[in-house]
Structures are given as C-alpha cells and as structure tokens.
User: Fold GTPase from Coleofasciculus chthonoplastes PCC 7420.
Amino acid sequence: METMRLVVTGTVGAGKSTFVRTFSQTTVIDTERKATDNTSLMKKRTTVAFDFGTRILGRDMELQVYGTPGQSRFDFMWDLLIRRAHAYILLVAANRSSSFNDAREIISFMNSRVQIPMIIGLTCMDLPGALGQEHVAFALGFMNDKNRPPIVTLNPNEKTSVFESLMVLMAHQLLQSSKSKGNAALGNVGGSRQAEPLKSRTKYQWPKQQFSSGL
Ligand SMILES: Nc1nc2c(ncn2[C@@H]2O[C@H](COP(=O)(O)OP(=O)(O)O)[C@@H](O)[C@H]2O)c(=O)[nH]1
Ligand SMILES: [Mg+2]
Assistant:
C-alpha cells in the first residue's frame, strides 16, 4: 500500500481541524484542548499537537492528512510533521486580515525546513469581510502571479470542497514529482511501498515570497 502524507497547516481558526474531520474516513485522532490564551477569544478549543485523519483511495493508496496546531509556540510540531510530508496546504481565513502576517511566518518556517509542493486554501470566503485571492496573495508576499503557488477557495465544513482542494494539492504534487528526476513521488513501485517525501530526491522550485527579497 502506498502512503501519501499531506499536511494541513495555517493560522488559528482557519479550519484545519475541521478539514481533517471532514476528510477522514476513520475516527480522527485529535489533540484539541481547552484554549487558555488569546486563542480562547476566538474559539473554545485549540489543537496542541496534531489532528490525524486517513482515507483509502482505490485499492492501494492510503492518504494520510495531518493538521498542525496554528500557534507558533507549537512550532516543534510543525517541524516534525512537515519533514515527513509530501505536500501541504496552508489554510488562511480570508476574512481575518490580522492573521495574514502569521500565515506568512508559517510559510517561511515551512520553507526553511523543506522544499515540497504547497497550495494555499482560502477559507471563510462565505463570511463578511472576506478578501479576494489577489489581495491575500499579495499579503502573503506573492506579488507576481506567474510565480505563486496554486490558490483554492474552500469551506472545510463541506466534503466536496475539502476533496476538491485535496485533488488540486495531489495533482500539484504529482506534476512536480513527474517533472523531477527519478519520478520520485510514488516511490519505488515493486520495491519499498512507502512513498518518499519529495525533498530528498527532487529539485522542487518553490515559489519565492517577494517580500523576503525586498521587492
Ligand atoms: N462559515 C465558515 N466557517 C468556517 C470556515 N472554515 C472554518 N470555519 C469554522 O471556523 C471554526 C474554527 O475551525 P477549526 O477547524 O477549529 O480551526 P483550526 O484552528 O484551524 O483548527 C469552526 O467553527 C469552523 O467550522 C469556512 O470556510 N466557512
Ligand atoms: Mg485545530
């Protein structure tokens, strides 16, 4: 059985835990605890380690989805989860511009650890005050539309929406891996059945945030 590990990261309240719950075929392992700090102003419970959900695709692929905590004080978990991931989606609540800075920092953190395919998922587009894709892309540092990760809009409460965004993420991952040397992403068919994260074998050209280069 092939295993693909995808990470759902993003800011507090962007819908990561909801995403994993909507996705999973099996009972989700979650580590939500009562929020005690500033997060409690936004929601009662918060993820302190990770959410884990899984789903079998076809006969021989298991898709594992790991949701990270949103708060940077748990960034040791970001590190642990991203290093084993094949690709990730960053969720950003489009109606909460105050969180865009945190989202940018999460991208920089991930990018400093691994170079793997990623997409951006805009949530809360159905809520008042939601900003458009272009605006959020700029705020996250992607000024150049020719050099930016794919951006999707989704509602993590809706199955179709979650599956569509996962399809975009997987397609992006597969496209990048087929471009890379050695056809890495699906591993060594017939040999080890464990797919290897791309970072070890490919030269994935991760879209650069332009803020960091001063543009
Ligand atoms: N209406 C709406 N609510 C959303 C959306 N995304 C997330 N939420 C809600 O935001 C709240 C926080 O979600 P949660 O999954 O705990 O966020 P996390 O901190 O990223 O794990 C939940 O009540 C979700 O149902 C969205 O696109 N639309
Ligand atoms: Mg959570």
About this structure: The helical segments are 16-23, 75-82, 100-113, 133-139, 159-179. The beta strands are 2-10, 32-34, 45-47, 51-57, 61-67, 87-93, 118-123, 151-153. The chain has one domain: 2-36+43-210. Residues 159-179 form the longest helix (21 residues).
